[in-house]
Design a protein that fits this description.
With about 140 residues, the protein is α+β, with helices and mostly antiparallel strands. It has six helices and five strands.
């Protein structure tokens, strides 16, 4: 069995959002942040080598700065069915993937590309992670 399939099986079996994000980190080449609709961070990968003040702020406060959300990018990604790949004001590429239930945005999955531009396979994996996060959030709410 290849590594992606092993990660996929582990993600499907995972019972927590943090565990899901930690496993998903092995499928993508960059860190991950999952936040709910009110910008509270639900899960974030541990990245001790990232010293960006924005990353440290998000990690410490467990909240996303409102200027980082870009709701328009998430809504556009929700309509198109593909993540939004944009650059922030510092030039950092950020992949934004909506976490949705029945075409309604319920969370934000973000991949700041500190380790380089994402591949098509990584973006596909991120879409799968967003779907698994949506399922997990629905289970947690019920």
């Amino acid at each position: 069995m290849n590594t992606f399939q092993e990660h996929l099986h582990a993600m499907v079996r995972c019972r927590t959002l943090q565990g899901l994000m930690d496993i998903a980190r092995g499928c993508v080449g960059n860190p991950l942040i999952l936040a709910n609709i009110t910008c509270n961070v639900l899960a974030i990968t541990s990245e001790p080598e990232i010293l960006d003040p924005r990353w440290l702020q998000i990690s410490n406060e467990k909240a996303l700065p409102v200027d980082l959300i870009n709701v328009t990018a998430y809504q556009s990604a929700l309509r198109s069915g593909t993540p939004s790949v944009t650059e922030d004001y510092t030039g950092l590429t950020v992949v934004r993937c909506p976490v949705a239930h029945e075409q309604r945005l319920i969370g934000y999955l973000m991949m700041p590309c500190y380790s380089g531009a994402p591949s098509t396979d990584e973006i596909d994996a991120l879409m799968l992670v967003a779907d698994l996060c949506a399922i997990r959030l629905q289970k947690d709410l019920n």
